[in-house]
C-alpha cells in the first residue's frame, strides 16, 4: 500500500518530465501527506497536461452518501482496478500521474513501528500511476476532484519492507499511461534498483505532523528520535 508520501519538487522538475501547460508557479513542499488531504496530480485537461490539486481518496461519480461514509479509496489494487466499481470508470478514461519525491512504509510490531523512507536512486521525482474522478456533493452541488494511487505487488527488493508498493511509471511512459489504449500493460513493479531506502524519525508516524518539515525525511539511526 501507500498511505503516506512526500511531494517536494520544483515546477522546473515537473515541466522537464511532463511538459505541463500553464505559467510556472511555486509548489508547496510537503513531507507527511496523509489520505483525504490535497495532493498535486498531473492529468490531461481541455488544453493539455495540467498539474492540479485534488483530494487524495477517490470519490466515484456515482457516490450518493456523505464523504465521511466513503470507504478508504486512497489506494487501488493493480490486479482489480479495471473491474472494481469504485475505480473501473476512472481507469478507462481518467488516468493521472501523481509526482512524488518519496514515500514511507513501516516495519516492526504494532506499537514499535520503524518508519522507512523510499526515494528514487537518481534523485528524480517518482511517477505514481493514479486515477482521478470528479464528483458533485449532493448537498452543496460543489464539484470535488479526487484521486487514488495504484499499488501492486512489491518487487523482490521492496518485499523486505512490505508486500505492496506504488506502481511507479517510467517517465517515458507518461503519455501511454495518460492516454494510451493499453494502460494495463504498465501496471508492473519497477526495477529492483529503482529505489533507495533509509530509516527516518518516528515523528512521521503521526498523521498531520510535520507536513512542512523537511527534517522528517532525514536519515536517522534510531526510529525513536
Describe, in plain words, how this protein is organized in 3D:
With 225 residues, the protein is mainly β. It has a single domain, classed as SOS response associated peptidase-like (hypothetical protein yedk fold, Alpha-Beta Complex). Helices cover 9% and strands 34% of the residues. It is built from 3 helices and 12 strands, in the order βαββββαββββββαβ. The chain has helices at residues 11-18, 88-93, 174-179, and strands at 5-7, 30-33, 38-45, 48-56, 75-77, 95-100, 102-107, 114-120, 126-136, 143-153, 164-166, 195-199. Strands 3, 4, 5, 6, 9, 10 and 11 form a 7-stranded mixed sheet that branches. Strands 2-1-7-8-12 form a 5-stranded antiparallel sheet, with no helix packed on it. A hairpin with a 2-residue loop joins strand 3 (38-45) and strand 4. The longest helix is centred in the first third of the chain and has 8 residues, at 11-18. The protein is globular, with a radius of gyration of 17 Å. The mean pLDDT is 91.
Annotate the secondary structure layout.
Elements: E1 5-7, H1 11-18, E2 30-33, E3 38-45, E4 48-56, E5 75-77, H2 88-93, E6 95-100, E7 102-107, E8 114-120, E9 126-136, E10 143-153, E11 164-166, H3 174-179, E12 195-199
Parallel strand pairs: 4-10, 5-10
Antiparallel strand pairs: 1-2, 1-7, 3-4, 6-9, 7-8, 8-12, 9-10, 10-11
- State Rg: 17 Å
Determine the number of helices (DSSP H or I, runs of at least 4 residues): 3
Strand content: 25-35%
Q: N-to-C terminal Cα separation, in Å?
A: 25 Å
Number of strands: 12
CATH hierarchy class name: Alpha Beta
Could you name the ranges where pLDDT drops below 50 across 5 or more consecutive residues?
Answer: none
Amino acid at each position: 500500500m501507500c498511505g503516506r508520501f512526500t511531494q517536494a519538487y520544483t515546477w522546473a522538475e515537473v515541466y522537464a518530465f511532463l511538459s505541463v501547460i500553464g505559467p510556472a508557479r511555486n509548489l508547496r513542499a510537503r513531507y507527511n501527506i496523509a489520505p483525504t488531504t490535497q495532493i498535486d496530480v498531473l492529468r490531461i485537461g481541455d488544453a493539455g497536461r495540467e498539474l492540479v490539486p485534488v483530494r487524495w481518496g477517490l470519490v466515484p461519480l456515482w457516490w450518493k452518501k456523505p464523504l465521511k461514509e466513503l470507504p478508504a479509496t486512497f489506494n487501488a489494487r493493480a490486479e482489480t482496478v479495471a473491474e472494481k466499481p469504485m475505480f473501473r470508470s476512472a481507469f478507462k478514461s481518467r488516468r493521472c500521474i501523481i509526482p512524488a519525491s518519496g514515500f514511507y512504509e513501516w516495519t516492526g510490531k504494532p506499537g514499535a513501528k520503524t518508519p522507512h523512507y523510499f526515494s528514487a536512486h537518481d534523485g528524480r521525482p517518482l511517477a505514481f500511476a493514479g486515477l482521478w474522478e470528479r464528483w458533485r456533493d449532493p448537498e452543496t452541488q460543489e464539484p470535488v476532484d479526487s484521486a487514488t494511487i495504484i499499488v501492486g505487488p512489491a518487487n523482490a527488493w521492496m518485499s523486505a519492507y512490505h508486500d505492496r508498493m506504488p506502481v511507479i511509471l517510467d517517465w517515458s511512459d507518461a503519455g501511454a499511461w495518460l492516454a494510451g489504449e493499453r494502460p494495463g500493460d504498465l501496471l508492473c513493479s519497477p526495477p529492483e534498483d529503482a529505489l533507495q531506502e533509509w530509516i527516518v524519525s518516528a515523528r512521521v508516524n503521526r498523521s498531520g505532523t510535520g507536513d512542512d518539515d523537511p527534517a522528517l525525511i532525514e536519515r536517522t539511526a534510531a526510529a525513536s528520535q
